[in-house]
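note to self — DONT lose this again. spent like an hour looking for the file last time. sequence + predicted structure for the chain T wanted, 365 res
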Amino acid sequence: MALKIRPAEECKYDILSLGEVMLRLDPGNERIWTTRTFKVWEGGGEYNVARGLRRCFNLRAAVVTAIVDNQVGRLLEDLLLQGGVDISNVKWMKFDGIGRKCRVGLNFTERGFGVRGAVGCSDRGLSAASQLKKGDIDWERIFGKEGVRWFHTGGIYAGLSETTRDVIIEAVKVAKKYGTIVSYDLNFRPSLWQDIGGTEKCQEVNREIAKYVDVMIGNEEDFTAALGFEVEGVDEHLGSLDPANFKKMIERAVKEYPNFKAVGTTLRNAKTASINDWSAIAYADGKFAQAKMYENLEIWDRVGGGDSFASGFIYGFLADKSLEDAVNYGAAHGALAMTTPGDTTMATKSEVEKVMKGGGARVVR
């Protein structure tokens, strides 16, 4: 395909992600405001991609982030260690005693059901990762000396603070200097931008970062809201799955950003919170490929489905698969991830490939 990926033997990592990792507090079958108990997970849009590539596809994965050095931060560390992602590039930040200056971000997430949509409530102000600034991370060592085949970050981290977008731009410039592929998931979150300039600021930031991206990932809302693309027939509020409209959107993106060597976008029609139609479409080398359509997909927990699409899609490129295979790895992995609780994948590569081949859901004994 169009991507020239560094050989594995030259690099310490197959995938490196930059972003915030939060504690997810999950009320299970209850609601955030009525429960009295929460289950704790780790999660974050950018991190979830690296973890998926490690746990499902067995690649060498690492994360760059910052964590406050207290008991809550060490709880997050323990969860990260269980996820198998290398944390040697985590910046530990001093705790001030009560979290006035630095803390762990929290994400309260309840899964939807039927006509009740999923709800996410973030409590992440003053988090350690949001305070990273240009010069805090030795990107020359990471990309130049250690070597990274693929670098992933996204619009969630770009919207955390006035400094995180500078960290992203610093990182992608060094990554490209050493031939590392850069992917970016637009991951538009209105709540992140509403107090710092809204959609207009979001577009300004993302359009600047887009200049350095090799592989752009998102859904219909991401491309319209985060990049400002208005394409006839594509409306983020309608959930249309007409591939022709999405091809127009991708063509518009590639024309405006010729540095995009590949584009992947998920297609979702949320019939209810529990039943979705789900697929994906991708572009590379002047060609399109569409994944299998998963009609009436039963959803257990939709949060993290897009991240698992991204990790499967990236795996396809790293494994030198065809574009059709890459988008199908992504769609199948995303579909499976939404059948289990939590942000992160619980799927195996063999399960992904079984779903890709049309395997059924009969009991495995």
